[in-house]
Task: inverse folding
């Protein structure tokens, strides 16, 4: 029985906050492949995920984990040398995995799923005014024209916290700061009236004070427009602030998924707890930080068993042989690690995770 | 114990461009760095923190003010011998491992480039031995010397960058955001490496960064810089727990901790520059508590002092 | 389905559930990607079938051009051949078994003239290309690297760039009496500028990269920064310019010959040959004297142009996908 | 914006002055026997010296320069020596300039219209048939020396289309061939650069956002990519003018069009210094004007330049 049946079968025990919502997007055993320098590599290895209406799901992972590729495959924005090899992406009545032609993708791009990108400096057309670039989305997806469309743009600019929208309408991107430009990019995404908003590391390129403002803005817009948000980031601090649920990705697969309290206070996959333990915020002065050995795998390596095995000092022999299935820890908490198998020896988590655990129990 | 002052910066000002489009990047900055400590310099992008690092390295010319290294003035015109001295004793680690190594040269040349310049080696075999020693001290295998940079991951390349500075046996290393371009799991490796090197080789760091939590973990003393001016400077825990300047408090409130319970209801203080009335009374660089300096007008200084009286330090 | 049933069904033996010992270098190795710049460049280049074919054509052509005189029973390019019987010059003989490309209006063998003409043109093109590259790198690197020099040379460039090069070329060849050296000198003087600007723009981009900053912090002298840090990045640009120098040189030589400033008639060159062909082109039967030089010129110029551009594309890391 | 243009115009004049002076001095290096044309051997040493003296060629260089510029301001470009002795240069040029102007401007206009259209469609149907055909055409035109295929154009088109070989001002049919040859060459340049700049724009990040916005590929191509590709294209205009100038020299003499192109070739061969001097001045002025036009167009297309008051990055 593969992993997703296990998730579906246990849905009836979900906590009430998630239970009310229906999964508006279900991804099952998605495999995305690239050909790079003559060889085909799999960036996503049978990842499965269900997204519930109105929730805020964070996807955490390092470079090479495939988190960006995962969301790009939802919108058909994969690079020329990449393609969805197998698996299904069920969204309303469509299976996005089968979409090939631009005509299909236009049914969902913007209208259903909109996206905010990482680098505000290059996401906007430098030679077009801000107003025109937002207006394009308003005209396309809200069917407004002329004066009405312009007013709609003013409203949206105001909603994303841009002052004096009338004056700003005719200004160009280079006259805006990084934070303001990111607000425009968010305005464009929201103007498409999407169901799902994918934010691909929206705050990574910004300073910490502006980062906090943008996170707050996305939270407000989520409740105001009833959006379901997928938040991609490698910053666990940001995840703790914004996410209801967290999916941890490593080498193209979702190795652990659960409510944010479960992931932070009771991480089960060795990678998740190692990632938490190595954060300087939790480090004790004078003592060395808990550091994960080795380097994140690049896509050239064909992965046998658990991809994290090579870097895990407490890896089991089986980790190098067989790929771990999902183990259920609670109704909403699953992890792909043989440690959860009752035959596996007990492994205590890094000391720092215990500390974090006690502090949260208070 | 009397700490030896390694570096002293007095009223340093650095500006770019002339007349009409003159941009002052660093505006009258004062701080000292003592031997064997890690001095954190934290600020947002465009605050001038990198410019200060480059001014010390003599890459950027200084407009006014002085930089003393072991008592000798090293900014502005200096003689050849002193210049050699500065090159050998002050080294720099760069932010982006992908851009700070010469892709078309072997690791062997990259690491020993400094040796070639300063002739600090007897013969070829001595140079080879020095390169291998440097690679081993940063946790890389000696046979990597014959490879090219593009064959390594981000973390490994950053360690090569560190090896390149160690081969010169420097006393002060200016680390300009050394880990912000690295993956999370690699950061801890480089931080631990830098701390080990500090204890084994007695190095001193000027650690420039925008990530406050990293600075808190690694620094002994921290200075917060905003728009070219250092607004507050203190021993690390004193600053993080008893910050007085509104900008520092704004920055600290923006740090997101990996702890959902506290994160969900964290209030974020927005810093508003207009709260100061510096047009009425210029701010001065004053010591509000031993080793705790702040940039404030007299009126503000009194207000901060009252707020500080009740606070005591609890070591986390 | 409970835990217990699940793992029995998968018949995994329990011994696998013991710790494996940790292997440090394996964890470093997984980050290793065997990308190498030159290997990928060559791979991408050889994927372009047309370019590879033309590369072969060029190699064959170059080899043949320079070994042609050594081949058996080859005629001399400048010797006038007479019919042994009538002792008359073999004027305008159409291509036949003896004169493979026929003869020209004064009885010289066109086949050997074309190949010796090609030799001359290739040498001119190569010398101009070489001059362009050497001057381009030396002045371009200094112009790009040293900020104080930048102001001065940019002004010089603005002035020099505005004199239409064709006119300078004409003036120079006129002043200096046509000859191979004059041609090389005139063409070099007018063409070094665009290469130098290309190098300067590249260096300005590379100059502020962090690895150059690092070299400066280590006290590396400018001389070594240029040779070790900058020039290796210019190789693909140099190869492209060298490849394009030859078609440009041939084109200019044909043009100069047309307006009477090309090489003297006694030196066989592609320009002279085309010119001679042009004078007779109106008469149908003598048109071969225009076709053969034209075809050889087109072959050489297209081959070098396409191969040069294909190499430049292959050398662009963005295409190493 | 205006300040930027005025500054650029001022710099253009300085460059023009420098260019003219350099060419003036370059001309003085010409071998002197050319001044006498075929009467060289008839005169003896003293007579020749007297004639050169009369032409002011023996004065020190700066005197000659001042004399030249005084004349220039009054619009007197001196008189032709060997081409049409004693005839003021301005008179000779007045008759010839219209022909070159017509040939140059119309060929550039045609090249811009068809070249941009070809470049755009090649970028749109990238790596498909249209792109392949276009690339073959561009490679052929830019690789093979124009001096070679102009011959074949003249040879075959005259016979196929029954067009007259040489240019005749009152026979309209003879206009077609030279114009076609000129436009075919500069057209390839525009097509190539337009395609290259559009392909560059296609790889930029903001295209990804435009796609994510749900815009169709056609909308992205015209509203974003093409519009932005015009900025670098404006810089190609001056180069194409320079290209057209050198092209006109050849075509005008090939089809014997009485324009200033063929005149320049002849006057150099005849070593008629004042005439060459004037022609070089005209050509330099055209190319400097072209550069200025390129800058103005770029500032017009790219709002960022308008705000940089201290001038473009020339």
Result:
């Amino acid at each position: 029985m593969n992993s997703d049946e296990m998730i579906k079968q246990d849905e009836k025990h979900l906590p009430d906050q998630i239970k009310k919502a229906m999964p508006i997007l279900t991804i099952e055993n998605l495999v995305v492949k690239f050909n790079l320098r003559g060889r085909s590599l799999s960036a996503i290895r049978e990842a499965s995920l269900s997204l519930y209406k109105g929730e805020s799901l964070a996807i955490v992972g390092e470079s090479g984990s495939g988190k960006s590729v995962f969301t790009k495959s939802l919108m058909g924005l994969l690079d020329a040398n990449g393609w969805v090899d197998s698996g299904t992406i069920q969204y309303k009545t469509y299976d996005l995995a089968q979409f090939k032609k631009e005509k299909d993708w236009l049914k969902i791009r913007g209208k259903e799923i909109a996206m905010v990108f990482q680098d505000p400096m290059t996401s906007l057309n430098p030679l077009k005014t801000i107003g025109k670039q937002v207006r394009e989305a308003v005209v396309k997806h809200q069917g407004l024209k002329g004066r009405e469309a312009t007013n709609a743009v003013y409203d949206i600019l105001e909603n994303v916290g841009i002052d004096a929208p009338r004056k700003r309408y005719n200004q160009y991107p280079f006259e805006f700061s990084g934070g303001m430009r990111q607000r425009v990019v968010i305005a464009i995404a929201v103007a498409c009236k999407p169901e799902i908003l994918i934010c691909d590391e929206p705050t990574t390129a910004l300073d910490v004070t502006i980062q906090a403002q943008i996170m707050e803005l996305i939270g407000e817009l989520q409740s105001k427009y009833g959006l379901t948000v997928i938040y991609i980031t490698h910053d666990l601090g940001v995840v703790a602030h914004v996410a209801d649920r967290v999916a941890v990705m490593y080498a193209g697969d979702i190795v652990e998924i659960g409510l944010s309290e479960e992931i932070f206070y009771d991480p089960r996959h060795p990678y998740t707890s190692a990632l938490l333990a190595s954060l300087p915020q939790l480090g004790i002065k004078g003592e060395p930080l808990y550091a994960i050995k080795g380097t994140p795998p690049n896509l050239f390596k064909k992965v046998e068993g658990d991809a994290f095995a090579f870097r895990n000092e407490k890896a089991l022999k089986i980790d190098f042989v067989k790929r771990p299935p999902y183990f259920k820890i609670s109704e909403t908490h699953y992890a792909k690690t043989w440690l959860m198998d009752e035959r596996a020896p007990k492994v205590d988590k890094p000391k720092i995770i215990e500390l974090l655990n006690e502090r949260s129990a208070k | 114990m009397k700490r030896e002052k390694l570096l002293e910066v007095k009223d340093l000002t650095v500006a770019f461009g002339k007349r009409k489009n003159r941009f002052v990047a660093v505006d009258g900055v004062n701080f000292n760095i003592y031997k064997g400590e890690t001095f954190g310099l934290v600020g947002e992008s465009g605050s001038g923190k990198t410019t200060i690092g480059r001014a010390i390295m003599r890459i950027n010319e200084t407009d006014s003010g002085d930089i003393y290294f072991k008592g000798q003035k090293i900014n502005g015109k200096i003689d050849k011998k002193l210049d050699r001295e500065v090159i050998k004793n002050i080294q720099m680690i760069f932010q982006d491992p992908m851009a700070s190594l010469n892709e078309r040269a072997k690791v062997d040349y990259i690491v020993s480039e400094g040796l070639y310049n300063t002739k600090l080696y007897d013969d070829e075999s001595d140079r080879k031995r020095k390169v291998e020693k440097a690679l081993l001290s940063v946790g890389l295998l000696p046979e990597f010397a014959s490879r090219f940079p593009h064959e390594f991951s981000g973390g490994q390349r950053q360690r090569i960058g560190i090896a390149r500075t160690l081969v010169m046996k420097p006393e002060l290393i200016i680390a300009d955001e050394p880990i912000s371009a690295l993956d999370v799991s690699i950061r801890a490796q480089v931080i631990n490496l830098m701390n080990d090197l500090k204890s084994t080789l007695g190095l001193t760091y000027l650690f420039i960064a925008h990530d406050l939590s990293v600075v808190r973990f690694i620094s002994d003393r921290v200075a917060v810089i905003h728009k070219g001016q250092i607004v507050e400077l203190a021993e690390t825990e004193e600053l993080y727990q008893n910050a007085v300047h509104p900008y520092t408090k704004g920055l600290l409130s923006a740090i997101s901790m990996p702890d959902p319970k506290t994160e969900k209801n964290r209030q974020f203080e927005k810093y508003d520059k207009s709260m100061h009335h510096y047009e009425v009374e210029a701010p001065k660089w004053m010591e509000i508590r031993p080793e705790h300096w702040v940039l404030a007008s007299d009126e503000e200084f009194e207000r901060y002092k009252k707020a500080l009286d009740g606070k005591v330090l609890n070591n986390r | 389905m409970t835990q217990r049933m699940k793992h029995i069904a998968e018949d995994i033996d329990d011994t696998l559930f013991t710790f494996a010992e940790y292997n440090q270098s394996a964890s470093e190795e997984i980050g290793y990607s065997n990308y190498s710049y030159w290997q990928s460049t060559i791979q991408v280049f050889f994927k372009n079938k047309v370019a590879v074919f033309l590369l072969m054509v060029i190699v064959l052509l170059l080899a043949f051009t320079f070994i042609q005189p050594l081949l058996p029973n080859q005629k001399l390019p400048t010797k006038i051949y007479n019919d042994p019987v009538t002792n008359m010059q073999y004027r305008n003989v159409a291509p036949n078994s003896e004169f493979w490309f026929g003869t020209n209006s004064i009885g010289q063998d066109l086949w050997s003239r074309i190949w010796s003409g090609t030799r001359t043109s290739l040498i001119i093109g190569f010398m101009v290309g070489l001059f362009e590259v050497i001057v381009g790198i030396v002045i371009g690197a200094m112009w790009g690297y040293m900020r104080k020099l930048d102001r001065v040379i940019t002004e010089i460039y603005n002035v020099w760039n505005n004199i239409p090069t064709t006119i300078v070329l004409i003036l120079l060849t006129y002043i200096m009496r046509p000859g191979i050296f004059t041609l090389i000198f005139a063409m070099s003087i007018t063409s070094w500028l665009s290469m130098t600007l290309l190098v300067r723009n590249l260096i300005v981009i590379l100059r502020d990269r962090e690895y150059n900053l690092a070299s400066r912090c280590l006290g590396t002298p400018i001389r070594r920064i240029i040779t070790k840090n900058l020039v290796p990045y210019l190789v693909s640009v140099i190869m492209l310019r060298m490849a394009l120098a030859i078609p440009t040189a041939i084109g200019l030589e044909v043009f100069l010959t047309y307006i009477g400033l090309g090489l003297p008639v006694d030196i066989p060159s592609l320009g002279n040959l085309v010119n001679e062909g042009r004078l007779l082109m109106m008469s149908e039967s003598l048109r071969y004297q225009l076709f053969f030089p034209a075809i050889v010129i087109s072959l050489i110029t297209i081959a070098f142009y396409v191969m040069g551009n294909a190499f430049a594309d292959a050398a662009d890391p963005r295409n190493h996908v | 914006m205006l300040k930027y243009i005025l500054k650029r115009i001022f710099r253009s004049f300085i460059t023009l002055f420098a260019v003219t002076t350099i060419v003036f001095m370059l001309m003085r290096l010409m071998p002197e026997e050319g001044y006498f044309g075929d009467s060289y051997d008839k005169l003896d040493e003293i007579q020749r010296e007297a004639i050169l003296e009369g032409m002011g060629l023996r004065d020190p260089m700066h005197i000659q320069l001042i004399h030249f510029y005084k004349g220039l301001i009054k619009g007197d470009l001196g008189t032709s020596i060997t081409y049409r002795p004693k005839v003021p240069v301005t008179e000779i040029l007045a008759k010839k300039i219209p022909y070159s102007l017509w040939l140059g401007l119309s060929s550039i206009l045609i090249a811009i219209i068809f070249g941009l259209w070809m470049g755009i469609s090649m970028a749109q149907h990238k790596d498909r048939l249209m792109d392949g055909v276009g690339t073959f055409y561009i490679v052929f035109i830019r690789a093979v020396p124009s001096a070679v295929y102009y011959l074949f154009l003249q040879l075959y088109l005259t016979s196929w289309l029954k067009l007259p070989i040489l240019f005749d001002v009152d026979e309209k049919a003879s206009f077609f061939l030279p114009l076609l040859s000129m436009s075919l060459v500069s057209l390839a340049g525009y097509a190539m650069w337009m395609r290259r700049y559009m392909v560059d724009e296609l790889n930029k990040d903001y295209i990804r956002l435009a796609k994510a916005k749900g815009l169709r590929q056609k909308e992205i191509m015209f509203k974003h990519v093409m519009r932005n590709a015009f900025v670098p294209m404006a810089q190609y205009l001056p180069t194409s003018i320079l290209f057209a100038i050198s092209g006109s020299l050849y075509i005008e003499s090939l089809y014997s069009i009485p324009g200033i192109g063929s005149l320049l070739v002849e006057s150099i061969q005849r070593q008629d210094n004042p005439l060459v001097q004037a022609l070089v001045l005209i050509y330099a002025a055209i190319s400097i004007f072209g550069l200025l036009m390129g800058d103005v167009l770029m500032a017009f297309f790219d709002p960022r330049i308008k705000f940089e008051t201290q001038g473009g990055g020339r």
Observations:
- The mean pLDDT of chain B is 87.
